[in-house]
Write a structure and sequence with these properties.
Helix content of chain A is 37%, strand content 4%. Chain A is mainly α and 399 residues long. Chain A has 2 domains: 35-201 and 384-393, Orthogonal Bundle (Cytochrome Bc1 Complex, Chain D, domain 2); 205-257 and 301-378, Cytochrome Bc1 Complex, Chain D, domain 2 (Orthogonal Bundle), CATH 1.10.760. Chain A has a two-stranded antiparallel ribbon with strand order 1-4. In chain A, a hairpin with a 2-residue loop joins β2 and β3 (281-285). The longest helix of chain B has 24 residues, at 2-25. Classes of the chains: A mainly alpha (399), B mainly beta (441).
Chain lengths: 399, 441
Amino acid sequence: MVTYPRSASIVLAAILWTVICIWPPHFVAADGSTEDFDQRALARVATPPLGLPKVFIPGNNPLTAAKIALGRKLFFDRRLSHNRTMSCGMCHIPEQGFTNNEVATPIGVRGRSLRRNAPTSYNIAYLESMFHDARDTSLETQIFGPLLAREEMANPSIGFVFATIEAAPDYEDLFETAFDEPANAHNLGLALASYERTILSANSPFDQWKYGGDESAVSAQVKLGFSLFTGKAGCAACHLIGDESALFTDHALHNTGIGYNSDTVIRASEEPVQVEIAPGIVIPLARKTVTSVGLPRLRDLGRMEVTHDTSDLFLFKTPILRNVALSAPYMHDGSLRTLEEVVRFYDQGGHPNPGLDPLVQTLKLGDNGITALVAFLESLTGDNVAELEADGRSTEIGN
Amino acid sequence: MKLNYFAFSLATSFALAFAFSVASLNSAQADETCQSPYMSPITGQEEYVYVWTLGMEGVGDASDKLVTIDTRPDSDTYGKVINSLSVGDRHEAHHSGLSEDRRFLWAGGLDDSKIFIFDIASDPSKPTLSKTIDSFVKDTGGAVGPHTFYALPGRMLITALSNDRDHGGKTALVEYTNDGEFISTQWMPDASDMKGALGKENADGYNYDVRVLPRKNVMLTSAFTGWSNYMMDFGKMLADGEAMKRFGQTVTLWDLHARTPKKVFKVPGAPLEIRWARQDNHNWAFTTTALTSKIWLIYEDDSGEWQAKEVADIGVPADIPLPVDISISADDTKLWVNSFLDGTTRLFDISDPHNPKMVFEKKIGTQVNMVSQSWDGKRLYYSSSLLANWDKKGEDNQQYVKLYTWDGTALNQEFEVDFVKEGLGRAHQMRFGAASLYTSG
């Protein structure tokens, strides 16, 4: 039996924290102020946790406490959707790895289906492109996607969003304080991006070992997993690890076969659907019963939808793997439910298809290797998860 | 808030005690469709059926509405829609419940948590909107999806289905005054806070229906699923292994008066509607599980302990018929059980509640959800819609209210209203009204 002293204490702290501040009361300071959190967030960005590089702050959006507080408030405001049910934080849920662990792909306003899994918001300050197909370029501009998408927040126009904000008494002066001007299409993005940039998490057991030199921070199994990740398994060719810091991404797009499998094999399947009707009781349900109550599975061609270049078919962005143990289910379609499923997927060489990236190959890692890789991925959970959850909940949910 | 609540319960405990005695004087313990024992039942002919109807895109004004059907047999407009009151927009209209004086019908929206209070007394043939509560989530401190509206003396007990933090299944039991003022939120017991109840290993914090048995000072709640699932495309959800893990597996027994949970029973597969028996010596209730297709009995055993046990299958559980609404007859001998996916209604003989026996079955439509029966058990109204994104697609999406008469051996169709042809939408819950209720006599 291998023990993980540090991750165990992180887990313990997380559980304790959950017990203290989950189901009611909501964790909101008595006077509604988030100042302590704002100050700690500023400090976190100025000196990122061990294992993270310096944060790039765009020249037009210097980070301030007022912007962080405003961005956080906007992020958790359900009023910012057409019928006041969805906030950013309803799909990027703090206690669920800033994604939604309870669905493969989330649903938006009126229950409309999304075809892609919600990526985590941890460490998105470092993204060079936004979305699984890299179609946007910055956190500041990304916001219009969800705000206006019919299946996400479904606002009928961007002006509608400002009318909502103007009508909400609790926003009085907040934009003026942060920007010296009322809410507009420019500063809305500046505010949201400012909060999002502060969701930094690292100083994981892996970081304490690799960048902190603490040999006891991780188990021998994790070290084996690391050597496979950077060696035989070839993971680090795409999930890069630097000498002083690691983001576990090459910021590029690849065909691992997940997109091909999702769009062709799964979508066309006539097989019965395995339905878990109660814990442990799985029943094969005829496909025609399922389709009688469901709309057809949505197509997804990946990067090609953006570039119209056929060589971009089924290309998806390499995600950052930090805190990945918290953000199940995995891949752009949420089709893999556990880290073990992910590693077994790579072990069998991805899903063969004409455009499969040559870096994805059959690995034959064996059960020990697979377990070690999973242990390694689990060692990437930062030590400030409870702090970031509490930070998110320090603002009152806008209803 | 806590203080207020206790002050209020103290003040109302007298009212409650009074109501208990009234209820036991009046041997009828519930109304025609298994409603609160604090309401007087319509024991004769219902004159109107109010149908809380979901707006459907492309049909009429695409908005939720309260539809009034004339059910007076001698009326020129018998079996016809005589009024339709649109509330604008779609809110995921679902359940509705009458206030204890039967003057107001509370109707909820599971999506945006709006509550519409209709005045059905001033002109029972033509309801009007008397009040809209759009602060439910804020009032309750984060409960989402007001579901069952259950009349208690002077107040409305409301189950929620979800919450504003993650749209999952953890949720609460809420109370409002009859005037629509918020009173209290009681979060459901879960492993992190059992609130003194037994059954920690079972507790999931989920909720669905609520029903009380004042004679025994007990209350039962059941458990469905959160917003993310009940709003999701049904086919997408069935294929999503994570989503399918998020269904309630519990029935909770409460001390009615104190509103404290006492025991959480494990009832796997999403137990939905709860129906108490009515007779004074019948200390039991039924519920059915949507996913596992079982009838469960919740009963007081010989030693005075409350128990839950599975007592019958509904159809072939392996086909997932998806039992939905149930209705118990006034004499506690029969239980109607609808199942959505096979569009079938089944009648169980429950003379021995520990051994229900199916005695009749009939397909009502491509899909069926709610059933409301008259006090004498001779008339059964069926409606079609389950949830906007769970209803069948294409041709199979029949939307209707149908009246059948039951002669003891067969169901004979009396009339049908086609809710698509009439430009109304998806027919959901049906409640009975009668002008005679409001005339002194």
